[in-house]
Amino acid sequence: MRPSERLERIPPYLFAELERKIADKRAQGIDVISLGIGDPDRPTPDVVVRAMQEAVADPGTHQYPSNRGRAEFRAAIAAFYARRFGVTDVDPDTDVIPAIGAKECIFNLNLAFLDPGDVALAADPGYPVYTGGPLLAGAEAVLMPLLPERGFTPDLDAIDPAARGRARIMYLNYPNNPTGAIAPDGFFARVVEFARAHDVLVVHDNAYSETTYDGYRAPSFLETPGAKEVGVEVFSLSKGYNMTGWRCAAMVGNPDAVASYWRLKSNVDSGLFEAVQLAGAAALAPEADAAVAEMNELYARRRDLVVEALRAIGVDVEPPKATIYVWAPVPAGFESSAAYCEHVLEEAAVVLSPGGAYGPNGEGFFRISLTTPDDRLVEAVERLGKLAPV
């Protein structure tokens, strides 16, 4: 049972390995607190659940869905972009297509746009699919360092000219996972200029725009003049609407890119369950805004709790303005982020995500997810504080 060479090119998926370690510890009777995986612990809003219940009961949703998507879902995406971001030129007939979660969409874009020898420019640190996907497509991922001194945004001028010449896709993600960084003013405009100059498709992974704090409102890439000419945005309902298990997302933007993605999907899957699409439409309606705001208040409280506790044990960390993560430097005395996270798991039974798993420039950091109840978060950080210095 020899796996393919393309599969051998990529390491095991980070979160699959974390889940295995958690299961092993719990099987030994150890009380493990996981702050590793960003999976909301609160239920999906009632308005979405009720819409899903009604849609599931409708026999009209029980047959094969169209890969192109329900008209109601595509219209809901377009209306949401107009209401939330002021992007009024999204045509639901040509500029929107549902995806079975952002991960599926991001991976399949590699198959749709990359050939062997092509390059995808990928944020480092970044979501592992930005680098694993190009490898599985037979292409190459070239890393764009996200450094603290640049606010965790890439220096587009520093990209190797040879890589620029072969680049077909650029992956960006703001608000950013894992760093929690936000896109500074003018950055997306510079990205549009770069994409035009080098004929690159920009793929903006917009997974966290609805999870923001302290009055900050995250923009859409498509708000930037010219963005739809050079790119698409993958909008996910997973994190902002507590819908990780529902696998509901959409790709929005350049109609030619949407058409290519649709052509690929019609050959590799049968589309998103229409009941999920109708539930997604309910999530995007104004009636769900209150539930999103309530979740943001909860996460803001947890963020402040974690930041205060980390500072109390000597970790220099800044509170993020968005996402469900806190990105913090590894304490002195550890040779790597993986070594620190392994130490914490063994000595405190707390699971953290090592920054190095998100790319070379994630080394020296670790990520804490805020998707754990307050009391368990407090206990986890207290356990960290009790660890003896190395």
Helix content: 40-55%
CATH superfamily of the largest domain: Type I PLP-dependent aspartate aminotransferase-like (Major domain)
Most strands sheet:
7 strands, mixed
In total, how many beta strands? 12
CATH topology of the largest domain: Aspartate Aminotransferase, domain 2
Mean pLDDT: 94
Order of helices and strands: HHEHHEHEHEHEHEHEEHHHEHEEEH
Strand order of the largest sheet: 2-8-7-6-5-3-4
Write the layout of secondary structure elements.
Elements: H1 5-8, H2 14-27, E1 33-34, H3 46-56, H4 71-85, E2 96-99, H5 102-113, E3 119-124, H6 129-136, E4 140-145, H7 161-166, E5 167-172, H8 187-198, E6 201-206, H9 227-230, E7 231-236, E8 249-253, H10 255-268, H11 274-283, H12 289-312, E9 325-329, H13 337-348, E10 350-351, E11 353-354, E12 365-369, H14 374-386
Parallel strand pairs: 1-10, 3-4, 3-5, 5-6, 6-7
Antiparallel strand pairs: 2-8, 7-8, 9-12, 11-12
Helix pairs in contact: 3-11, 4-11, 5-6, 5-10, 12-14
